[in-house]
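Worked example

This section walks through a single chain of length 110. The input is the sequence exactly as stored; nothing has been trimmed or padded.
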Amino acid sequence: MLLVLGWPPDQGHSLGVSLARWAADPADTLPDPPADLPMGLDDDGDAVTAHDMQEAAWNHARERSTLNRWRMDLEIANDPLPPSTQRQVLVGLAVVAALITWQMNGERRS
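Given that input, the structure is written out below as tokens.
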């Protein structure tokens, strides 16, 4: 089961992270985090004001409750390791689990 939930696809998030992100906001009601302000727009007062308003709405929603903060953190979560490292760790865990299971199910010799 760990292999299925943790195995990262070539693009996107693993099934476990995708399920956690969906469980945090199944109705898609939480606001999206504000994107970084592009370098070319720092002279455009309207764009800066719009960005600041979006950031203020994000921060206000985050500060409403601890549960909201936790849900918003889960909604933007990513896999903890790069995909190649994650695959190697999962294969290693599967091999160790198989060896332990094989050893435990083997016949006991006196």
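What to look for: The first helix runs from residue 2 to 6.
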